[in-house]
Design brief:
mainly alpha, 125 residues, single chain, elongated, 91% helix, 0% strand
């Protein structure tokens, strides 16, 4: 599978997982961690060596899209955007830190999955 298609599929899977878990009413922190591990593992298994940077980019992209949609289409997000100022800056800063945190978790998930894949291939020789 081409890398571009896989990254697009990873972004779509991340968006669907985020939406599904939000529909279930789960805590966004856990949702981000679970979806980062799932998408990172998917990318790590399919790309192999060097998949960490692709996983980081993919997870960062879909989390950024998710949080923009949350700010635009939920009542809490509209309320935060309405007041603006220092509170909005702090909230956006916190969201960006969490996005980097999720991306790093997905990076490690992809690294572990690609390492396991390489080890299984080495054992087969």
């Amino acid at each position: 599978m081409k890398t571009g298609k896989l990254l697009f599929i990873g972004i779509l899977i991340g968006l669907v997982l985020f939406g599904f878990f939000e529909f279930l009413g789960l805590d966004p922190t856990y949702v981000g961690i679970i979806s980062a591990v799932i998408v990172g593992t998917l990318i790590g298994k399919n790309i192999g060596k060097g998949s960490g940077k692709y996983a980081f980019f993919t997870i960062f992209t879909y989390n950024l899209i998710d949080w923009i949609l949350v700010f635009l289409f939920t009542s809490d997000g509209k309320l935060a955007l309405q007041y603006g100022g220092i509170a909005l800056s702090a909230l956006i800063g916190f969201v960006l830190i969490m996005i980097f945190f999720y991306s790093i978790i997905g990076f490690f998930g992809a690294f572990v999955a690609s390492s396991l894949k390489r080890n299984k291939q080495d054992e087969g020789l």
